[in-house]
Design goal:
CATH superfamily of the largest domain: Isopropylmalate Dehydrogenase
Number of domains: 2
Bound molecules: 1,4-dihydronicotinamide adenine dinucleotide
Strand order of the largest sheet: 2-1-3-12-11-4-5-10-8-9
Structural class: alpha/beta
Number of helices: 11
Order of helices and strands: EHEHHEHEEEEHEHEHEHEEHHH
Distance between the termini: 21 Å
Strand content: 15-25%
CATH architecture of the largest domain: 3-Layer(aba) Sandwich
């Protein structure tokens, strides 16, 4: 099977390499189609996300992506935002579960953050009104609000989940989040067999920290989802563990929640588990359920045995030792 690979920046090539090795060891034969994106692409093609990368993904439909660096406060537009908008990957899905052997305050966390991926404050529409005054536009459309809430309910229905919580700030942003909330209520009425709850996003953050087991599926706009995903990753052991997927109607791109981690890049310290679990979601998406389950089991066994673990997990191992441990546990 052919799958597009964006290695990414920083720790991207390290975690995607480890992921490729584990997938091969699991007996899945993938013909990886490399596609440029990130700092190297910016230097080579004058664009960190060349058109040909979007074309390759449109052609093959499925991609695994390492994280890409976006300069802070200057430079080019976020590659991730462009990729998600360009391929209309409207739904970001981040399953957050407690894993065996990982020492965290809560057991039995099992929730999914569903994030609208194409608009909100990340629409990227900013301009200087007059010197010293900048305006960022927060775009909410009925179409995007409806389809992401519907996606959340359909995910709940398929996975037999009981509760969808819509997170918003419609008390302050009465028009934009007001429209989103109205759409959420309308869609919820079509799913009377799934409980629907609406909560202010600030309150959700507090409740998540107090007891994340109260939640099941959380659905929200782009910026809130970005922040809440990292918060939830922290609840179950950190960014090195939590996988993610971006789904559209035609394509899907699988990537970890974490970024390019410049502080540890090139040192062999990156934990590949988040990327590997994203790849397991990818294998499930393309119908290789057995291999996906075997990889998840091998990860769980590795975490339980606590052998070869990287520093973010409290071990003194490297990307290499944890990759070998996972392969031997397959
Ligand atoms: P980050 O997620 O790269 O790193 C935050 C902290 O978590 C760092 O201390 C890092 O060492 C640690 N960390 C992250 N992943 C890890 C892993 N697999 N194993 C061990 N430790 C890990 O976030 P940061 O530093 O805010 O962003 C760095 C760059 O990444 C920025 O340019 C940002 O724009 C980009 N980014 C890209 C994303 C993507 O491509 N999907 C997502 C988030 C950020």
């Amino acid at each position: 099977m052919q799958i597009v690979l964006i290695a990414g920046d920083g720790i991207g090539p390290e975690v995607t390499d480890a992921t490729k090795r584990v997938i091969a060891a699991a007996g899945v034969s993938i013909d990886w189609i490399p596609a440029p994106a990130g700092l190297e692409a910016a230097e080579q093609f004058g664009d960190p996300l060349p058109d040909k990368t979007l074309e390759i993904i449109r052609k093959h439909r499925v991609a695994l992506k390492g994280p890409c660096t976006t300069p802070v406060g200057k430079g080019y537009r976020s590659i991730n935002v462009r990729l998600r908008q360009g391929l209309d990957l409207f739904a970001s899905v981040r399953p957050v579960r407690t894993l065996p052997g990982v020492n965290v305050p809560f057991t039995n966390v099992d929730l999914i953050v569903v994030r609208e991926n194409t608009e909100g404050l990340y629409a990227g529409l900013e301009h200087v009104v007059v010197p010293g005054v900048v305006e960022s536009l927060r775009i909410i459309t009925r179409r995007a609000a409806d389809r992401i809430v519907r996606f959340a309910f359909e995910t709940a229905r398929r996975q037999g989940r009981r509760l969808v919580t819509f997170c918003h700030k419609a008390d302050v942003m009465k028009l934009s989040d007001g429209l989103f909330l109205q759409c959420a209520r309308e869609v919820a009425e079509e799913y009377p067999f799934i409980e629907f709850n609406e909560k202010l996003i600030d309150n959700v953050c507090m409740e998540l920290v107090l007891d994340p087991t109260r939640f099941d599926i959380l659905v929200m706009e782009n910026l809130f989802g970005d922040v809440v995903s990292d918060l939830c990753a922290g609840l179950v052991g950190g960014l090195g563990l939590v996988p993610g997927a971006n789904y559209g109607n035609l394509c899907a791109v699988f990537e970890a929640v974490h970024g390019s981690a410049p502080d540890i890049a090139g040192k062999g310290l990156a934990n590949p588990i988040a990327c590997l679990r994203s790849a397991a979601m990818m294998l499930e998406h393309v119908g290789s359920r057995d291999a996906a389950a075997r990889i998840e089991n091998a990860v769980n066994k590795t975490l339980s045995n606590k052998i070869g673990l990287t520093r973010d997990l409290g071990g003194d191992g490297t990307s290499e030792t944890i990759t070998r441990a996972i392969i031997s546990n397959l």
